[in-house]
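ok so I'm stuck.
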Amino acid sequence: MEQLSIYNELGHEFDPVYSKLLKVKEEGTIIIHNIKVFLNEFGLYEIEGQDVHDCSSDIDGCYEKIALQVSKIEELNC
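replied:
not stuck anymore, here's the structure
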């Protein structure tokens, strides 16, 4: 069963995680729940964390991968 968030209804522009991802180009590197996100030399969004090292060619793919990792972190903390 897929977990949905309120931002699926409101839109990503209201999601603080998505808003933070929009700042990667100007800030270089951002941290979301101990997950580092940056643009690598090929222009890909690179995602590094304790249990993840992945990349995405666009911000929406990056957002989906971050959301999956954050939901895993939240499950462990419950």
